[in-house]
Amino acid sequence: MSISVFLSHNHNDKPFVRKLARDLENHGVRYWLDETEMKIGDSLIQKIREGIDGVDYFAVVLSPDSINAPWVVNEPDVAMNYQISGKKIKVLPIMLKECEPPGFLIGKLYADFRNEDNYVKAFKRLMQSIGVVFNKNVMSDEKVFDNLGTALDKASHANIPIMCKPFHRPFQYMGMQVPQAEKIFECKGNEVGSIFVEDDDCRMHLCAEGNYISFVEVDFKKTIPHYRNQEFDSEIFLGALSIGLSELELVGK
C-alpha cells in the first residue's frame, strides 16, 4: 500500500504545491490536492475531512499567505483532532516562505523549502522523513513543470474546468495491472479487460493488452467554441487533464 499525503496550502502557493505534488507522484506517493479531488457542488468541509481521513501524512505549506488563510488554519485543526482521537496521522510542516508558524507547530522540525536552489535537497529530506527512497532521476524537469503551468493557465483562460480524479493525469494508469485498475474504478473490465469510466464532462477508455493497461483515451463531452480562422490549441485540453505538453514525449519514451 502506497504512502499518502494531504497537501494543505493557500491558493497563492499553488505553483510550488503543484511541483511538489508532481515529485511526490513520481516517487509513488499518493497525494490529496483540492483541485484534483473536488468538483463543483461538493461540500468543502466534508471533502476535506474525507481527504484527511484517508491519508498517512498531513503536510501544511507555511507562508505569510497560508498562516492567515481561514481554511489552512482549520485543516490542521482537523488533523490534530484525528491525532488526539488515536488515528495515526503525522503532521509535516513545510516552510516555503519565512513566517511565524502556528502555535501547534512551534518546536517541530520542518522541511525547509525557502531557498529554491535547495529544492532537491529539501525534497530528499522530506522523502526520508516519510520512509520513501529518494530518486533524483524522477524529479520533475523545470521544462516539464513550466509546460504544465502553461497548459493549466490555458485551460483556465478558456473556462475549461481542471478535471479531478479519475481523469486527473490519466497516463498514470498506463502499465497498471487490470485488477488494480478495476479496484480503483470500482468496476469490472469487459471481455478483453478494457475499462470504461465516465461522468458529465469526460469519458475515459483504458485499453488492456493482456493483464495490463496499454493505453488510455479520454474524450471531452463539453468543449469550447472554435472558429475556422482560429488555430486549434490542444494544450488547452491537456491542461484540463493536468498534463504538460512535454510530458507527452516522456510518456512516449
Automatic annotation (TrEMBL):
**Gene Ontology biological process terms in this record:** signal transduction
Taxonomy-wise, where does this protein's organism fall, top ranks first?
Bacteria, Pseudomonadati, Pseudomonadota, Gammaproteobacteria, Enterobacterales
Instruction: Using the record's annotation, list all stretches that form the TIR domain.
Output: 1-152
Query: Where does the source fall among the domains of life?
Result: Bacteria
Read off the InterPro entries from this record.
Answer: TIR_dom, Toll_tir_struct_dom_sf
Xref: Gene3D superfamilies: Toll/interleukin-1 receptor homology (TIR) domain (3.40.50.10140)
What protein name does the entry list? TIR domain-containing protein
